[in-house]
Amino acid sequence: MRTESESDLPPEAYAVALASLPSMGPSRLRTVLAADPPALAWERATEGRSVSSHDVARAWRRQTSHGIRVILAGQPGYPERLSIDPQAPPVLFCLGNPAALADTPTVALVGTRAPTRYGIGVAAQFGADLAAAGVGVVSGLALGIDGAAHEGACGAGAPPIAVVAGGLDSVYPRRHERLWDRVAASGVIVSESPAGVPTEKWRFPVRNRLLAALSDVVVVVESRHHGGSRHTVDAAMERGIPVGAVPGSIRSATSEGTNALLADGAIPVCSTGDILVALNLAGAFVVVPPDAAGGRGTPGLPPAPSPGPDRQVYDALSADPMPLDELVRVTGLDLAELCGGLERLSQAGLAHDAGGWWERA
């Protein structure tokens, strides 16, 4: 018989407790919750174990104390594009605004954790351009291409969407703590792992299917031949989601994977326009704003950005072009954050790229 405190717990609390069990992976959890309501599923899964309603309440408090929203499959707020997926997570954990997962055009920008400067610049540019065009940029908040894509997208327009492997109470990687906060503030971070669950290695390839499932198009910016991006590509192809790849030097190991994808028939992506065309062909119709087509709208210089990383970049620029290395030294920002800021300033008409050297407009 349930206690009074136990009866006060919502169904989501039991789903959280189930997901927190050490032996409960996403696939088994999907099977368990498909057979029974969460409370009954918890009773059956823990029969004979030394657990109680206190464990359920503790797991539930861990989510709510961090502002994490828990959405069960079939409930209001659960993303429509996930609800029809054959491997849909039965429980989704969200930090930020789940409305960012609404049925609007989305593009996953993925790639290696050890990109070249070229790859970082391209990812940041695509992130800023796509967000400005009203397209949600989906990525994994990992080091390298993922982080650069979200650095470009944050504050540029459409809310960014991040899909992470571990619990939302622990920032991973730690170097992205500030970016994590910015994505949660302007968009949403989602996971199928409850708070308290560590970011284990096996969870990354499993979560990559969600990167694909939440996207209308997947674009690989840079990747080694057998890089982790292949998991996202395979998941996209299984779902009939178009895959694009950015061409790279045949002498660069970080372009081996993308060049191989192009040889296998992936969409060549040489500009933001190529991605927007792919979106339209996929049925996710996008109206290209004048800025994305090269225009600047009304004449006159817009105001300087508000205090923050973008203002640091803006203040470091002058009429004399500066290379990226010098801007990294002057601003103290890492390369991905710097490139994201430069692309947003470029979108706003405040900065200009002069052949890899940047100057204030």
Folded structure, characterized:
The protein has 361 residues and is α/β, with parallel strands linked by helices. 42% of the residues lie in helices and 12% in strands. The strands form two sheets. The chain has a nine-stranded mixed β-sheet, sandwiched between helices. A three-stranded antiparallel β-sheet has the order 10-12-11. Helix 2 packs parallel to helix 4, helix 2 packs across helix 5 and helix 10 packs across helix 11. It is globular, with a radius of gyration of 22 Å. The N and C termini lie far apart (70 Å). About 2% of the residues have low confidence.
Number of helices: 16
The assigned structural class equals alpha/beta
Q: Which bin fits the share of residues in helices?
A: 40-55%
The major sheet is characterized as: 9 strands, mixed
Strand sequence of the main sheet, in spatial order?
A: 1-2-6-5-4-3-7-8-9
Beta-strand level of the residues, as a percent range?
5-15%
